[in-house]
Amino acid sequence: MPRSGNSSSAKGGPVTLAMVARRAGVSPQTVSNAINSPDMLRPETLERVRRVIDEMNYRPSRAAQTLRTRSSKLIGYGVLPAPSSHPVLDRFLHALSQAADEAGYSILLFACPPGGPSLEGYEEMLDRHEVDGFVLSGTERGDPRQAWLAKRGVPFVGFGRMWSGRQIGDWVDVDGASGTDAAVEHLVALGHRRIAFLGWERGASGAGDDRAAGWQRAMRRHGLPTRGRRAQSTNDIAAAREAVGPLLDAGATAVIAASDMLALGCYQTLRERGALPGKDVAVAGFDDSPAAELLSPSLTSVAQPLEQVGRECVRLLLARMSAPGAPPERLLLEPSLVVRDSTAAPGPTAAG
How far apart are CA 237 and CA 254, in angstroms? Predict the structure, then answer.
């Protein structure tokens, strides 16, 4: 077993459980079993792991010794870089932290690199054994995290669907299609027929495509044309200002935006043209960001039930920790349309 003294690697850093596992050719869980539950291993495996532990002078940390019982009471959450941050995720993190605190857990934040979902940061958290499980957000097509965590038996829950490939693990998401569908219904009830959609680039975001699909579904249900009434933009005010122009030129009396950020771009273009949101062209956003109520006129927007999302993420994660083999649970929650001053009936010459 380990000799006395502080263990260190050849590079001078501490020897980790993962390093021992790589040297022994086994999984980190097998090394943990060799330390905490040696009776679970075959004699030859136990001997090989113990020999490597001795050779590397590995000293198990307190966190590593709690791996078997998953008792750290910490939930890992990867934070997106500041330029990619979004008010919705900020509000979600607050709701998640509150729900975790009520359950006796704390959220351990770590930085995620830019460029979309990746495994960077997750392996380090597991190597250090500081977390009992993970909550994932920013799930997109090609996201490698779910399969990677599932293969290692690490509990996780996603805020967001996987959008492509085989569904893995538990998730909670908001029905974006239902939200934009409700926005179309609201505008149709006001008398609008030329309802445009300002969204993100097709295929760039599963959530963006979902919101576009809700608009298209509702338009078809009412027999309203969609051709020439959809524009694409990055989630940027300046880009949205440019993208919405052709929709207005084509005579749209209302614009549904895939985010409040895009709606802000629409506001700016209307004002540059001497038109008023709400009075001349109805505008609806998505996310009900803090700015929505403060704008003039205040912005009609689809609100996500983030407090419920946070509670359900914690509930599903704790359930997965206690019953690893249980069937996955997936929840699709309904958003709500918050009607404000930016949506009104079209003028008498624009309603047709």
Answer: 18
List the single range of 77-91, 98-112, 237-251 with lowest mean pLDDT.
77-91
| DSSP code, position 84 | G
Asked whether residue 10 is domain-assigned, the answer is no
Angle at 23 between CA 17 and CA 26, to 5 degrees: 70
List strands edge to edge, sheet with 300-303.
230-232, 195-199, 254-257, 282-286, 300-303, 336-338
CA-CA-CA-CA torsion sign (125, 131, 134, 138): negative
* Model confidence pLDDT, tens digit, residues 39-52: 778 889 999 999 99
pTM of the model: 0.78
What's the rounded mean pLDDT across residues 14-32? 87
Q: In degrees, to the nearest 5, what angle opens at C-alpha 312 toward C-alphas 307 and 317?
A: 135
142 assigned to some structural domain: yes
Sheet containing 170-174, strands listed edge to edge, beginning at the edge strand earlier in sequence: 106-111, 74-79, 133-136, 156-159, 170-174, 330-333
| Confidence check: pLDDT of 31 > 90 | no
What's the pLDDT score for residue 350?
A: 56
* Tally of domains in the chain: 3
Q: Are residues 190 and 280 in the same domain?
A: yes
My answer on whether 196 and 297 are in the same domain is yes
Could you tell me if 184 and 269 lie in one domain? yes
Instruction: Give the per-residue pLDDT at 9.
Output: 55
Report residue 37's pLDDT band, with 50, 70 and 90 as the boundaries: confident
345 part of a folded domain = no
Number of Cβ atoms within 10 Å of the Cβ of 200: 20
Shared-domain flag, residues 157 and 190: no
Q: Quickly count: other Cβ atoms within 10 Å of residue 205's Cβ.
A: 21
Average pLDDT, the chain: 88
Q: Are residues 170 and 182 in the same domain?
A: no
Helix 237-249 crosses helix 260-272 at what angle (to 10 degrees)?
A: 60
Q: Would you state the structure tokens that stand for residue 317, as one six-digit string? A: 């994660």
* Full domain range(s) for residue 110: 74-174+306-334
What pLDDT, on a 0 to 100 scale, did the predictor assign at position 3? 36
Specify the CATH number for the domain of residue 323. 3.40.50.2300
Comparing 62 with 321, the larger pLDDT belongs to: 321
- Please check whether residues 229 and 279 belong to one and the same domain: yes
